[in-house]
User: Which sequence fits this backbone?
């Protein structure tokens, strides 16, 4: 009976992933996944609910309630933090399970290594995720690459140390450090150090990577407790995280190792501009837009920071009322997690059919009248195509510089994450609207009433 | 090596393969809900907590650890699915 429930549950999980493939069916995917999860959890009790005490049920109930409260209160712009935090929870839970199983010391040898693996990955995911959340909240900005380099260099001796210590000093002093706690500590420090060196704009990769690890930790926990459904679901999550990680990396033309090494954008390069940019006003932008037939908006992290989604929607409505075609060009790594911009736009009811990927929209830029760049920088930097010495050379970018006119809404000329100047800003067909993304757009919309 | 272990490995491989095939086809627009959804699924380690709780024995310390895992995994699952639902609701066409 249990086996049949579990079989059903695995099939539901796979169907859920299948339904995720299209925006129109995706909301049903969640229902399927919830159902699959419910069946899997139910089967774990094996129809014997009396084995568990009240502390157990209260813990589940309170945590479940907490989960609901957290998920209802979080804002869409905070989605990366939330997913980051939950990655850590999943990883931490798997790590804790592995620790308990290892402590019982009745594990067969093959499971023993899987359990050590699960514990290390789980703890690494936990501490790494916590650091990722702090980074996303802007609480950690320093550059920690020296510490990371030192830690990585000392990792092999640190891993061997317990064995050597115990064989030399255990008998003399009676203190053993060949313990689970030592390896937990090492994994926790590893997670902290590894994520701390990675900068904000690389967070999409980090979040996807930690997501994958939380799945792998769950999968290996499945090996320890002999639960096939745990292995299947864990493997699905692991695979999903890895795909997203690789997608994000290729969207930046960097390898996963380069991203995890960190320190990107910390090298100082020439940031001077040869000439001053052309500055424009909201009124002029409104006039410019009213003569356009096609407009493309390129949102970036700046839109999320300024909470400018509603203003974007207002502008979109204004333009559409005037029969101007409006499209959204979304770079894969725009924002702080995969698909971040799409969610923010969907939040204000922008149709997903109007959201275009890099490959789709790049063919069209030369025929677009006006492009509005909203809080994006490196992903529209033409140096990625032209300057072989640039740190972003080879990265796929949105070719907005090919459009007839470009308006960049930005507070200053400060460089983006890569720390380099963006010649797009001083192009002959570019104009800078120096403003906060939200205020800038609101003023443009207001000016339309006067045009 | 027992057959069971090999079978388990085979299942792991197949699940990863299916996951890879299905998820490669998911459009960029849905990457965030996919991520928060798969994130919720990774809380399935809750099952492990349920399985080992009755066998944890006398140690209060280990019991607390399992309860911690139970709490983390439950928050992960419930919160994850709930927030994924919220996101996907926004992708429904409102016509």
Assistant:
């Amino acid at each position: 009976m249990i086996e049949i429930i579990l079989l059903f549950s695995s099939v539901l999980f796979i169907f859920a992933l299948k339904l995720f493939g299209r925006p129109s069916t995706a909301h049903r995917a969640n229902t399927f996944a919830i159902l699959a999860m419910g069946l899997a959890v139910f089967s774990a009790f094996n129809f014997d609910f009396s084995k568990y005490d009240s502390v157990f049920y209260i813990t589940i109930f309170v945590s479940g309630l907490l989960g609901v409260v957290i998920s209802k209160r979080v804002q869409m712009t905070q989605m990366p933090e939330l997913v980051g935090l939950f990655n850590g929870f999943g990883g931490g839970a798997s790590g804790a399970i592995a620790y308990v199983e290892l402590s019982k010391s009745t594990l067969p040898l093959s499971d023993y290594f899987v359990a050590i693996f699960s514990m290390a990955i789980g703890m690494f995911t936990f501490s790494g995720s916590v650091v990722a959340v702090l980074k996303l909240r802007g609480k950690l900005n320093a550059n920690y690459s020296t510490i990371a380099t030192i830690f990585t260099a000392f990792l092999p001796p640190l891993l061997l140390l317990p064995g050597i210590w115990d064989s030399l000093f255990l008998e003399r002093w009676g203190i053993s450090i060949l313990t689970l706690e030592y390896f937990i500590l090492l994994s926790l420090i590893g997670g902290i150090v590894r994520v701390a060196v990675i900068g904000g704009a690389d967070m999409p990769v980090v979040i996807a990577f930690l997501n994958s690890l939380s799945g792998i930790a769950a999968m290996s926990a499945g090996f320890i407790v002999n639960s096939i459904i745990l292995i299947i679901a864990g493997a699905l999550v692991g695979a999903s995280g890895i795909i997203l990680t690789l997608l994000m990396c290729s969207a930046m033309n960097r390898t996963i190792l380069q991203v995890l090494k960190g320190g990107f954008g910390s090298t100082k390069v020439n940031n001077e501009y040869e000439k001053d940019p052309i500055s424009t006003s909201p009124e002029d932008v409104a006039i410019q837009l009213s003569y356009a037939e096609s407009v493309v908006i390129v949102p970036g992290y700046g839109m999320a920071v300024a909470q400018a989604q509603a203003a974007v929607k207002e502008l979109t409505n204004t333009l559409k009322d005037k029969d101007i075609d409006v499209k959204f060009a979304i770079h894969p790594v725009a924002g702080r997690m995969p698909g971040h911009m799409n969610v923010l736009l969907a939040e204000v009811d922008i149709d997903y059919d109007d959201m275009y990927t890099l490959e789709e929209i790049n063919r069209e830029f030369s025929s677009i009248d006006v492009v509005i760049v909203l809080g994006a920088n490196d992903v529209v930097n033409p140096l990625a195509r032209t300057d072989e010495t640039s740190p972003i050379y080879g990265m796929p970018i949105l070719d907005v510089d090919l459009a007839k006119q470009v308006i960049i809404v930005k507070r200053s000329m400060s460089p983006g994450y890569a720390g380099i100047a963006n010649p797009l800003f001083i192009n002959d067909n570019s104009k800078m609207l120096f403003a906060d993304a939200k205020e800038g757009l609101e003023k443009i919309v207001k000016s339309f009433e006067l045009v | 090596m027992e057959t069971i272990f090999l079978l388990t490995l085979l299942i792991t491989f197949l699940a990863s393969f299916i996951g890879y095939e299905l998820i490669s086809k998911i459009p960029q627009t849905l990457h965030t809900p996919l991520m928060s959804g798969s994130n919720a699924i990774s809380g399935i380690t809750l099952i492990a907590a349920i399985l080992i709780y009755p066998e944890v024995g006398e140690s209060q310390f280990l019991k607390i650890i399992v309860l911690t895992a139970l709490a983390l995994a439950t928050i992960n699952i419930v919160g994850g699915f709930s927030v994924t639902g919220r996101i996907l609701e926004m992708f429904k066409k409102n016509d």
User: Anything to note?
Assistant: Residues 29-91 of chain B form one domain.
